[in-house]
Amino acid sequence: MTTWAKPRTKKENRIRVKRGPLEKKEARAGLLFVLPWLIGAAVFLAYPLGMSLWYSLNNIRLTSEGMKFTFLAQGNFTQILLSDPDFLPELVDYLLSTVISVPVIVVFAMMIALMLNEKIRGKGFFRLVFFLPVIIVSGPILASLTEQNASTISVIDSQAVTAAISAFLPSIIAAPISELFSNMVTILWYSGVPILIFLSALQKIDRSQYEAAYVDGASGWEMFWKITLPSLKPMILLNCVYTIVFVSSNDQNKLIGLIKSAMFSGTSEKGYGYASAMAWIYSLVVLLLVGLFALIFTARKDRYEREAKKLDRRAKAERRQVLKIQRRQARHAKKYHHAPVR
Amino acid sequence: MAYRGRHINPQRFERGQIKILLILLPLALFMALPIVFIINHAFKPMEELFAFPPTFFVRNPTLDNFTKLLKFSRSAGIPLTRYLFNSLLVTVLTVGLSLFTTTCAAFAFSKIKFRGRSMMLQINQIAIMFVATAVLIPRYLVISGLGLIDTILAHVLPLAAMPVALFLVKQFVDQVPDSLIEAAHLDGASDFQVYWRIILPVIKPAIATAMVLVFQQVWTNLETSSYFTNDESMKTLTFYMNTLVNSSNGVAGQGVAAAASLIMFIPNLILFIICQNAVMNTMATSGIK
Question: What is the predicted ipTM?
Fold first, then answer.
């Protein structure tokens, strides 16, 4: 109960600060606020998550007496990774297409949000049009739309594009890119929520910043790079994460279909444990992907803080140097029976 | 970059808008495709639904599909209004509850220090990534263990703590300056007052966004109806509509399904129209100089 739960630095490790009554009170208030969420999350998120981890280590058979567990340890995982014909190729496909399409979606969303934030006529209408597809993408309607070829831009004939791309790039990279082009509209339909998030972030940028920059003679281009983009940065990460999650947990996703079919398949080696293991592998991959984007976009410390830290470090080094000299002087004084020189 | 006014739409058309409109209009056309398709599809008569090559726009609009849908539901044992009532109740309860829990938790996670908060956040992050299908059976066990099968709560509780919403709202609360909260504390506000009087108004756009998200998830959720309820009269409209779409593969079913998907789509439209004003008109309140 003496230190924070956050990762400690060396200094905090040495000096243990006991928490005062004020901090205890604050902690209590914090827990109180989290409590409703905590209960819900513990019962319906954490517990099921833990259970599914346990399931993934077992072979589960549904019998008339209930679920029958046979402990397999890593058996499910090795089976999926080594002998499942569909899972691994699908996973690689998914990874490539997501890595390519997420930046496209986010950049597109940002562009649209920037334009929608300008002064234009019929803004409300545009906003509606750009947001609404999200609702449909998550429903069964998308399937029937793709059936009717509405999800490809016929103007950009994907054949020509595909040919051009595969002439320049190795096929493993060319395939997802051409897929990107042939699914362009579908991808754009995913951008509704990111647009909304960007817009609400844009609304919060202080107008006077722009005015100040304008007075200083900044062009619109400079203002975008120096004001708009830095203020949007946390939202870029948020949108990347959101888009990845949305794409990954969509019903259209083939991997989800695989997991579902494994879950309800009657064969003895598949079943619920196998499906759980699949889901865990899949989630880990998604987590890695998110981690990758987070690495790129997490807010670095700003320049001022960096400089301050640097100065701090230098001052500390100097102080150490002074101490060292003083110690040496003291030692010398003892050795040669001189009075220490001050 | 002068004063932009409070209105969303400028009153007059200006020449500066042309370049933006030139980009936006064609894109808007693509984005509008599915909406146009749904609306058109619902009004198509039988022969157009099965026309080959399929048509995008309706030529002879009829209301046949809707009357058929009504007839269909009348012949079923449970009236359509019962499903509608279930859906509305579930949606209102879930959206309210989950917004309350997420904003509370986001405030605490972002602005109050206490033990274990980073760990809880990490659990939340993992939960975001996790495939919902995979936790289905443990969830079922929890719900049946609590004796909630065939109650309204079976629909509400599983979605009350939505990790994506928490993540979103927390990101916005992070942006609220600490000095605003400190000022309130100095003026003698309690933590709850800070939450109610300062955090909530300032993050209104985030709440509106989260509300749209949660609503969409709840409204289109099939899971709770198909797995957590056995009693036909406790299922939601979405479930019913989905059975129409799936079960009636016959020729007659296609039209009913088209009408059903339009009906499912309308509430989303209305909610978004209401919410988008909340998303947009809050710029004045969030600033601190």
Answer: 0.72
